[in-house]
Structure formats: C-alpha cells, structure tokens
Design brief:
This protein starts with a helix and ends with a strand. 23% of the residues lie in helices and 18% in strands. The chain has 10 helices and 21 strands. The longest helix has 24 residues.
C-alpha cells in the first residue's frame, strides 16, 4: 500500500512540474489593449472603458502576455500603438487585440473610433477610424499563429446619427484561419452603456478567464452565455472562431491520477417502487444505494405510473409518467400563448438529472468523447454540467445502444408536463418560491452557489427530483420565440431556429423566475456551460 501511494505521489509531482513549465513552452504572446472614454463629441465620457482595459491588461499579464495598454488615444497615437504592436509579431506567435470605445460599420467593415475623430460622413469614418479588418490582415501577414480579437464597441454613438437614421452596429469579421474573435454584442446590434466598476461584458469575461483548464473558445462561449443570462438575453455577445488548434490563456490543468476502484458485484435484479416525496423540511443531501436493474423492460401495457426501473446496472433510474392533458405555457414573453397539450401514452423519464457517475461511465465505454469539468465541486452523484445539447444527444444514443431500448431527450412538452407533476401553479410546490424548496440563487438554502447532489430536495407529485433548479436541462426542441404553431400532441418542435435548442428548469445560479414550470430559454446546440445538464426519456414498448 505504501509503495502504491508513493507511485501516485510521484505522478502528481511530475504532473505539477509539467504544468509549471507549460507556459514557458508556449509561443510568445503579445497584446495591445485600448480603452477610449473621453470623446469630446460625446456629452459624457464612457463609464467603464478605461477600467475594463486596465482590468483585462492585468489579467493577460498574469498569463504571460507582453501587454501594451493605451487610454484615450487620438488617431495618430492609436496608429503608432498599432504599428508597434504589429511590429512585435513574429511567425508562430500569439497576438491579442482589445478595444473598448465607439465603433462604426461602413461598407461591411468595422472602424474603431479614436477620441479626436471628426466624423460627419461615411467617408470621414474611413479617414479617421481604424479598420479592424485591415488590422487583422496585418496580424495574419506577420505570421501570428493565433489571432485573438476582443471588441467592446457596439454602442450607440454621437457620430453615426449624423449620417444615418439608425445605428448599424458592427460588421461581422471575415477572419483568416487561426482567429478567435468576440464582440460585446452581435453584428448589427447595439447596447446601452452600463455602469459599475466594469461592464457586464468584461465582468463575465474576467470570471471565465480565471476558471482553470478552459480553452479560449470555451472561455469566450461561457462569457457569452453569462452575459446573455445576466441581461435576460438583451445583450448577447458574438463569438467567431477559425482556430485550428486548442489554445489556453493559462496552462491546462493536469488530471490527477486516481487509483482504480475495485469492481462492485451486481445485486440481484428486481423492480423498485418510486419513493414518496420527502416532507417539506430543510433539505439535506440524500444518499441512496444504487437501484437494481428491472427483471424485464416495462411495456406500455404493463407499465404503471410511479414504477421505477433501470435497464442495466448503473443505468439511469427511470420513472413512469402517466398519459394526460395539461395547459402548457403562460402569458409571459416567450411562453405564450398558453395551449392545451395531450400526452397520449405513458413514458419513462429520468427520476434525476443525469449524474457525473453516469456520464463518466459513457466516457469510459467510448460512447461520450467529452469529459466535462466539474469546477472542483465534485462528480459522483452531482448532475453532469458543462455539456452541450450535442453531448446530451450522444449520451442518449450510447444508452440506447447499451440497453437495446430507445432513449432520447424529452420534448419540451413532455418536460413541462413531467415537471409540473399535475400542478398548474408557477412552481410545482405552489405560487411562491419559498425557502429550501430547490437549488437556485434566491432559494435560501444556506449553501454555496453550486450544484448539489441529485435528490437533495423533495420530489414533485410525480416523484421527479430537481425539475426546478440545480442544472438547467436540455430538451429536444428547436427554439421558437413563442408557441404559435407548436405541436399539441407532446412531440418535439423540430422547425424554427434549430441551431438554438431549448433549456428548461433553471439552475443553481438562476433567479427565481427561471425556476417556474413554464420558464424557457435557449442556447447554441454546441455550447457547453457550467449550469447546463439534462435528463433522458425512455420510450415504452
């Protein structure tokens, strides 16, 4: 035993040493950050731009960038800073450019505006502005292997209104290979100036930059989702990537070696009844033994509502939900119009959200390729997070192949029907959020803001846990802004904005309104985020 401990200690020490030297082995990094706030033609200075630039400059210095920071620069000084920045770039290097201030789109190109610009026409934008496309072309010409561009300039500005009826926002970049770009708002969109020490955009970006072991693409995508969440989708940053290799701002965190666990003998198969909802008391994490496998797969004819089964040792525990009719949606934006939906036959749905243990079994079996980060909160029986809709689909496909049964994501209608548990109140437990009913930002659980073990809170009337809070749950449907034309038979809605998929139920970091049974929101199908997980449905034969 002592020799084994020494062996694993040696591995850990070696991994730490490799991580320590990783940054020194990475390509050289140069960065130019510009924050412009004091525009004489504007009525007031921009409130966060210079602080944002300083904050990011310090962050990038910590990750070994050679940083040049400029504030409130005119046309000539801005061009000199850019020339010096481009002059530092050598083939194979990493080059990062950040600008915060005003930007204007002309002829499908973005121009960054110096503080002394005198702009009354589109021609003067080209004369006084700095072309972002031209700068990126120079970074490419100098041989930068990784080109990172962060632009916080999608603001209403005092110049554009002089020659345009409405703001046109920024233009999308036609980026060369090896580029990762991020705007504070989507091309063509503008945002209002915020307040506080840092802008919402930079605040979320800094938060994700400090999370270990994330690729740069993951940092940007998570920051985009964080801004979208915090602004209730009023501000949705834009990310575009043509990177050909993974890039990390810091060094990837080594995976700690863990001794293999001894196999556990499988218990005799049997069917288990559904647990009754726990009494309404302050929740404590529930520790349950692994439920044994069912003696036979239930069919539509034999399945009874409330039956609980597993199709294999270690498989997801499924609960049979009855057929029924309910009123789906509400009068709230994105949830309207309310409409009647009929679920014609029973189906089985995960009694809990899919856990890290279950996901890691899929990885070990080769069915899932991505090993999500648990943010050091623990794996085991916590809900798997940091998985995309595509990842969830891969898990369902693996489970179907493993068991010979049909597993899939629930439709949005099936999810809401199951989550309500036969109720019609905003939350399945009543009209008010109350305390200690679920895991969310405003749920008053007394615990830190992170996921909890599945089943830590009482079940809904159907016997399902965590349909409100803990992890937001992917469903099958494409995103539509409302329910006009939605299926009324419980099937998924597979037309609309299908690059975006629906998430339901809210999460540990959600405000109370997102835990309502009707609340719905959207994310890109390929995006992974620390609050997003899922549960599965199994069709009954």
């Amino acid at each position: 035993m002592k020799m084994r401990l020494v062996f694993y200690l040696c591995i850990a020490v070696a991994s730490a040493a490799l991580a320590h030297s990783a940054l020194s082995q990475q390509p050289a990094r140069v960065a130019l950050l510009i924050g412009n706030a004091n525009y004489p033609d504007a009525s007031t200075p921009l409130s966060t731009t210079t602080r944002d630039a300083r904050t990011l400059a310090e962050e990038f210095r910590r990750t070994e960038f050679d940083v040049d920071l400029k504030e409130n620069v005119g046309r000539e000084e801005m061009q000199r800073a850019i020339d010096a920045f481009v002059g530092k770039i050598r083939p194979g290097m990493v080059a990062l450019f950040y600008f915060s201030g005003y930007g204007i789109q002309v002829a499908r190109q973005t121009y960054l505006i110096p503080v002394n610009a005198q702009v009354w026409t589109e021609a003067e934008v080209r004369r006084d502005g700095i072309s972002l496309d031209a700068l990126l072309a120079e970074m490419q010409r100098k041989g930068a292997k990784v080109k990172i561009v962060i632009i916080d300039a999608s603001r209403r500005n005092p110049f554009e209104r002089r020659f345009r009826a409405s703001a046109a926002g920024l233009a999308a970049l036609d980026a060369p290979d090896g580029t990762l770009a991020m705007y504070s708002a989507a091309p063509g969109k503008v945002i209002n100036e915020g307040s506080g020490p840092n802008s919402l955009f930079v605040g979320e970006l800094i938060k994700e930059l400090r999370v270990p072991n994330l690729t740069a693409e993951e940092v940007f995508n998570r920051a985009r989702i964080g801004v979208s969440r915090a602004s209730n989708n009023e501000q949705v940053p834009w990310v575009s990537s043509s990177l050909v290799d993974e890039f990390y701002f810091g060094s990837p965190r080594p995976v700690a070696a863990t001794p293999p666990s001894a196999p556990t003998p499988a218990p005799a198969p049997q069917r288990t009844p559904a647990a009754q909802p726990a009494p309404a008391t302050a929740p404590a994490p529930v520790v349950t033994a692994t439920a044994p496998a069912a003696t036979s797969a239930p069919s539509s004819a034999s399945a009874k509502p409330g039956d609980v089964f597993r199709d294999c040792q270690g498989c997801v525990e499924m609960l049979v939900v009855p057929a029924g009719t309910f009123d789906m949606g509400s009068t709230t934006e994105y949830e309207n119009p309310p409409h009647r939906v009929t679920i014609a036959k029973p189906f089985a749905i995960g009694r809990h959200e899919v856990t890290f243990d279950q996901w890691d079994a899929c990885v070990a079996d080769g069915g899932c390729k991505h090993r999500p980060d648990d943010r050091e909160w623990g794996r085991g029986d916590r809900p798997v997070i940091n998985v995309s809709w595509l990842d969830a689909k891969a898990f369902a496909a693996w489970l179907s192949q493993k068991t010979g049964q049909t597993y899939r994501l629930p439709s949005e209608a099936e999810w809401e029907y199951a989550a309500r548990g036969g109720t019609n109140s905003p939350y399945w437990w009543g009209r008010d959020l109350g305390s200690r009913q679920a895991n969310c930002r405003e749920c008053n659980t007394g615990a830190s803001q992170q996921t909890s073990a599945v089943g830590s809170f009482k079940a809904n009337p159907f016997g399902l846990h965590d349909t409100a809070g803990n992890a937001a749950e992917w469903v099958e449907d494409c995103w539509n802004d409302n329910y006009r034309g939605a299926p009324q038979n419980g099937s998924p809605w597979l037309t609309g904005q299908c690059r975006l998929r629906v998430l339901r139920g809210g999460a540990f970091d959600s405000a109370a309104r997102y835990l309502r049974s009707t609340s719905r929101f959207r994310y890109d199908s390929d995006v992974r985020y620390s609050a997003n997980g899922f549960r599965v449905v199994r069709e009954l034969q």
